[in-house]
User: Fold these one by one.
Assistant:
Number 1:
Amino acid sequence: MGIDLTGLRALSFANRVYGFDFRNTVTLGRHEVHFWKQEFHAVQKKSKLAYDQSIAVGCYCESLLRKLGAENIVSIDASAFEGASLIHDFNLPIPSDMHEKFDTFLDFGSIEHIFDVAQVVDNIVNLVRPGGHVLIATNANGFPAHGLYQYSPEFFYSLFSKRNGFEDTAIFLIKSSRPVKWHLIRPPAALNRRNQIPFEEQKVMMVFSRKVRSVSDLSVQQSDYDATWSSFATGSWAAWDRRNIPRWKSMLHEFIGPFLFRSLSYHFKSAQAQRKYRADHIVVDPDSVDPADFARMLADAGVPKPPSRGEMNQAEGATQLH
């Protein structure tokens, strides 16, 4: 668990663009500093934050957070091995006296290591007071041996949604090989289909959101199933018909064999994902984007677009065949 160059840029973005209040901050895990002095100066060249040995590589993050205005910092971990201030297993409910006590929740690489996902997100939501913010960094793609899970943008858009008391949610994907520019991912509900994300490259995810109110129970549903079930309830849903499978697919499958068919299908889907991904994201420079411009980007990203017939057919088949 640590704050690397991308994590440092995320904190700077949270401070400059989102206006995070760091006075009362809780972290999931006690995070080490993993960025170098040169990286700090590259990110903070326009800010008044000064580098010193308290935020050198290998130090813990409290001094960095105090530079951002933190006064009360609580770190939560299941073990005392890194000196967390509160030893508590996040698989279990947090104590009720900690509910809504914090302005900011930070996680730089812990959530994917904890088994009980429902309890984890319940704890996160309960820790933050209305008006507070959440910042989560986790792996999105290409890290199958790192933790217990890899999360999708859909998961966080469904969790940090208006019906769960959150607004201004932004999900970024950052390519490990080209981390300078971030990709703001459009919500699947706005696309009227699932995100198409290239799966060959390693990517990390940055999640930003603002809590505006408390709700008694969280409701998290994948958006395309939500839409399908609503259509079914109103009688406007039609079952997928296997007779709609093009005959050429069946003939090709029989002619070249199932393994070659699957190999060709993989390359086709890869090219399709690359093409659709262009429509699924907005390129953002987190170090220079103007807060007002970003607010407009966020609003534009969330505007639903009419689905094409092909997307409707694809979504219909996806809900049936997974």
Number 2:
Amino acid sequence: MQQIYYFLLLLTSMLWAGNFVAGKFLVGHASFLTLTSIRWFIAILFLFPFVRFKEKQLLPPRKALFLLFLMGVTGVDFFNIFMFLALERTSADNVGLISALNPIAIAIASFFILKEKMSRRQILGMTLSLLGVFIVISEGEWQKLLRFHFNTGDLFMLAAVGSWGLYSVVGRKVMHQVSPLMSTLWAGIFGVLTLLPFNLFTFYVIDPNFSFWMATAYVSIGATVLGMVFWNIGVQKVGGTKSGMFLNFNPIFTAFFAYFFLGEHITFVQLIGTVTVIIGVYIFTLRANSISKQATLMNE
């Protein structure tokens, strides 16, 4: 039975990887503010019936409103703005690769905000993953690191990953009061309302053709609504740690989609960096008890 949930988590990773490729196409049609507003406005419309059917109500408790507002600012506004800014300046491949750092960003945010400790194994995995990212953003030329010459798109995506870490930590606190679906809906509402004053007079779309609306429907319904529903089911049924492992597939699916839909080719340096990141994240997310069990079996 768990294979069904593993499949849903794998499908979630594929949907989120496709989000980067579709987003790369969309940044040529509208500003990052406009794209974020459109994406989440459509997502909110589709989330309403989900929440109404499952929760039998639409309004969250008053004490949860501030945390939901913070989720909207960090996960809807900052994450999407930084992601679209990144896609304007770097490849979808790099964006997908850097997104694999999400579990580590969550752990770092938890360390500073929730005072959760990190083990030596986690620190090793985090260091290895960051090494992989540095390999990619420096294009294998270490002189760029010393001169701080980076692709600004890669740096924007690192900021997006940091925003997602904050969003996840705030979400963990608010989930004690509301469901994942309810929190996603109201984070979207607060995110769109927060963006409205900044985007009201600068809202524009260039050549909104059929392809634009298909890509918009994908990032709004596929990557946001379906992706979040499948992810929440997976976390509920198999746990957060195992679910997080499936984020390692993001760079692989992104590279595949970017090759076929955008004509991007992954370089040898990107491949080395991707493998390094995935190994680092794998080490980071390994359960300590799994390692002890393996050690016991080896001793036997």
